[in-house]
Design a protein that fits this description.
The chain is α+β, with helices and mostly antiparallel strands. 19% of the residues lie in helices and 46% in strands. It folds into two domains: 112 residues, Electron Transport, Fmn-binding Protein, Chain A (Pnp Oxidase, Chain A, Roll); 132 residues, Thrombin, subunit H (Beta Barrel), CATH 2.40.10.
């Protein structure tokens, strides 16, 4: 599955909006130097990032020479990288809640690359997570636009999520085993806050119809193409995976298991 320039630009703007962390790489006479930073704000054809503890003279020379800096950040299971010209250094950028900080304005380039990780990085779903998951078994002729039948919905709890699939514990109803088996085509609806993604997938296990009241299954999402709906679903899924990662980080800082 490829990604388009529009996909990467959407991922960049989403990362800017949430103030994602970045690695800023600056060219120096001794080679590239890498600094941790973060996005601050969208500026239309550019974006603001928090400045780094580099030599001020070096930063001014990079601005004068219009030399690009490297920017890298994580999006879902991929890393997005770009080379952006530093246009301005503002020593008194006003940041809500943090007072004044030193900031750099970078131009959004025409080329933005995606580097996919090997495999799918799975994010665990903690108990009482804000993530809401609904799953329905679909017929082979149904489409995602069709209204799913209530009788085909599976009662389930999510265990982990990645851009490639989701792990679920399916719960039987009225003491009966869950009506699910390997190969079943399913509709998966994910919601986290105001972000929702609807995806098609296939149950990869169990190999036989479930006999227990609780059964662990894996769902592999269908590969997304280049259609408008697929690109939207990919962007929404990326936002949800990233949001779930942030939720896990917050819970860890608060000491919540």
């Amino acid at each position: 599955m490829g990604t388009t320039t529009a996909d990467n630009l959407a991922a960049l703007r989403e990362a800017i909006a949430r103030g994602a962390g970045i690695v800023l790489s600056l060219p120096t006479p001794a080679g590239l130097r890498h600094f941790k930073s973060r996005f601050l704000a969208d500026a239309g054809d550019g974006f603001w990032v928090k400045s780094v503890p580099a030599d001020p003279a070096l930063l001014q020379q990079l601005i004068t020479d219009a030399r690009p800096a490297g920017v890298a950040f994580r999006h879902a299971e991929a890393k997005i990288v770009l080379a952006a010209e530093i246009q301005h250094l503002k020593p008194d950028y006003e940041l809500a809640g943090d007072g004044l900080v030193e900031a750099l304005l970078l131009r959004i380039p025409s080329a933005i690359k995606t580097i996919h990780r090997r495999g799918s990085f799975r994010v665990p779903v903690p108990p009482n997570s804000e993530l809401v998951v609904r799953v329905w078994v679909m017929s082979e002729t149904a489409t995602l636009r069709d209204r799913p039948a209530a009788s085909r919905e599976l009662k389930c709890e999510p265990r982990d999520l990645s851009a490639g699939g989701i792990g679920l514990t399916v719960i039987g109803r009225d003491g009966k085993p869950a009506a699910v088996t390997a190969g079943d085509r399913v509709r998966v609806e994910l919601s986290l806050g105001d972000v929702t993604a609807v995806l098609e997938g296939r149950v990869r296990h169990p190999e036989k119809p479930a006999k227990a009241a609780l059964v662990r299954i894996g769902v592999q999402f269908k590969a997304l193409g280049e259609s408008k709906d697929d690109r939207h679903a990919l962007t929404q899924l990326g936002r949800i995976v990233s949001g779930l990662e942030r939720e896990n980080i917050r819970r860890k800082k608060l000491g919540i298991n």
